Fold this sequence. Notes:
Elements: H1 3-54, H2 61-69, E1 76-83, E2 89-94, H3 105-114, E3 118-122, E4 125-133, E5 138-146, H4 148-195, H5 219-266, H6 273-303, E6 313-316, H7 317-321, H8 324-331, E7 336-340, E8 352-355, H9 357-373, E9 375-386, E10 390-399, H10 429-439, E11 443-449, E12 453-461
Parallel strand pairs: 7-9
Antiparallel strand pairs: 1-2, 1-5, 3-4, 4-5, 6-8, 9-10, 10-12, 11-12
Helix pairs in contact: 1-4, 5-6, 6-10, 9-10
Keywords: Kinase, Membrane, Phosphoprotein, Transferase, Transmembrane, Transmembrane helix, Two-component regulatory system
Catalytic activity: ATP + protein L-histidine = ADP + protein N-phospho-L-histidine
Domain HAMP: 181-239
Amino acid sequence: MAVRTRITLLFTLLVVGILTLVCASVYYFSYTNRIKDIQTRLANRAITTGRLLSQGGIFDQALIRKIDASTSVAMKDKVVEAYDNSNKRIYWYSDTPADTLRTDTTVLDKARKSKDRIYFTQDRKDAIAYYYNDETSCFVIIAAAYDEPGNEKLRHLRLVLSLSFIGGILTSVIGGYFFSIRLLQPLRRIADEVNEISARNLTRRIHSATEDHKDPKDEWAYLSDTLNRLLNRLQESFEIQGRFIANASHELSTPLTSISSQLEVALQRVRTIEEYRQVIQSVYQDAWQLGKLTQTLLEFARASGAAGGLEIDLLRIDEILLRLPAEITKANPLFSVTLDFDRLPEVEEELLVFGNEELLFTAIRNIVSNACKYSDDHHATVRLVTNGHEICISIEDKGRGIGEEEWEKIFQPFYRSDDSLATPGFGLGLSLARRILQLHKGSITVQSVVGKGSIFSLVLPSAAKL
């Protein structure tokens, strides 16, 4: 079912419900008011007749019938009957001679017992049974009549309410249809603009939704802003992917070109064993660099996946950090690491994190390795601090430092500053570390002063707060 039709039906059902409630309430209160009115009028007639009958020495039944007949204009098809305590009819009057009531003794007994008026209906007449009791006589008087004015008003009211109900339904259907068109028009425009956006024109943004809705806080403006932010992220992702592919292709082609060129030159003529050894040594260095780059790219691709596909375990972060000194020195004997655990918490649970051990170690190792690589003393200090719900790891070096304008750029894949081009590397370590930390719902920031050194701060959520 189309949304437009669904909105129209829901709007119509809402209006029908409201109209039904209003019409039913109006009719119900009008009906009860008619019943109360006719009860009051019949009770007055019964009381008057009872008073006349109790004064039998003054008013005979013929005179009483004349008095009852004089009220025929006020009430149509009036019938008045009186019964004594033995349920014997002692008085009867009817506007129509053949018109009588089928009186049930249970009604008479009920009236005597309650000593109040009892309302009931017979055929189309409204009737009451009234127990009249004074010092001289007691009997039950039944007064009945057809309430022609009241029923005529109710018929007229039913006609008005029925026409209003049908008119309200038709109005709600038509109004709901045009209301839904107006309501969904911005959504249609947004969908049309989104359909025109592709990978070739990601720079285009959605504007039409806010043209008809000037309020920046309405839902259509919010939807447009949300989609525009999504397009910004997609454009940024495409640009990063394009740069990554271009840089990866360049980094991969460089050692391959070097290898093929050296082998081609070596095969042009017969060479000595020493010359072949030099060629093989150079090719080996290029192949090693190519393998290292390939491994790094595989790690980056693994870290770029979803966190749901990783093997997540409960880890102690201090045990991961304790692996750093041996691994860093093993990779380069000139590198050294100092661990500062002076502020460890008393509760060991605050050192626990949920994550993948190898990926977390790879991220921290890359940052520590960079700190050692770009420091004159090839030394890095790693400090561990917890505050109950977060684990903070700071990696400090006394290297050349990073300019503030490059603090964000260094986390882009393959980015290398001008003064670091002479140092071997691919520019993937920091971007890989950030991606791994993001998979673990963590973050990484840098504070650096050129010529004095840098401090990289890693923050991970503690398992104790989860």
